[in-house]
Design a protein that fits this description.
The protein is mainly β. It has two domains: about 45-100, no CATH class; about 100-175, Beta Barrel (OB fold (Dihydrolipoamide Acetyltransferase, E2P)), CATH 2.40.50. The protein is about 5% helix and about 30% strand. The strands form two sheets. Strands 3-4-5-7-6 form a five-stranded mixed β-barrel. The relative contact order is 0.15. Bound molecules: zinc ion. Zinc ion binds near residues 72 and 74.
């Protein structure tokens, strides 16, 4: 029999009723939890395969070093991020277009702490908004190439793709001036 301390009136009704048992708390810090794969919902990068997203072509092209997006041939609208259907006319007959490989920094900031899982070791790093040359798009992304303290608004960047864990790719910007 357990030696539970129960408030009056909370005794089990019958011999077989479940009893609430308080575990005695061990002294000292809790044991280190076992290392497990990163939880899907906390994975910073998206799943990229054709069985995982209808935008797999975006990643296929990125793997070739081409940053691209969708454009609606009906109304000429460029989308970012790429879409499976046009947000204006709902057409799914979209075309893929390559985006310019260069741009200028519209704004930037630095991640000094609280980085997403998997990026903790990269702190500090720069992120920013980049106006792609000759396009109506302003993209958010990481900016590499020089310390964030040396970046400047209006500075030139180029787009590059890079490998991320899980056989995946993503895009980022690299300062070029
Ligand atoms: Zn459209």
């Amino acid at each position: 029999m357990s030696a539970d301390v129960r408030a009056p009136g909370t005794e089990p009704r019958s011999e077989g009723a479940p009893a609430t048992r308080r575990k005695s708390s061990p002294r000292g810090p809790p044991p280190e939890p076992p290392r497990e794969p990163r939880p899907f919902l906390l994975d910073f990068f998206p799943l990229e395969g054709p069985d995982q997203t209808r935008l797999a072509r975006f990643y296929d092209r990125l793997r070739e070093g081409r940053l691209s997006t969708t454009r609606c041939p009906k109304d000429g609208e460029w989308h970012w991020p790429p879409r499976t259907a046009c947000p204006s006319c709902h057409s799914e007959a979209l075309e893929w277009v390559d985006l310019p490989e260069t741009g200028t920094i519209y704004a930037f900031s630095a991640v000094l702490g609280g980085a997403p899982l998997g990026l903790e070791a990269d702190v500090p790093f720069a992120v920013g908004l980049v106006d792609l040359a000759g396009s109506p798009l302003r993209l958010f992304g990481r900016i590499e190439g020089k310390p964030w303290t040396e970046l400047r608004v209006g500075g030139s960047v180029r787009v590059e793709s890079y490998e991320v864990p899980g056989d995946r790719v993503f895009y980022r910007f690299r300062a070029t001036d």
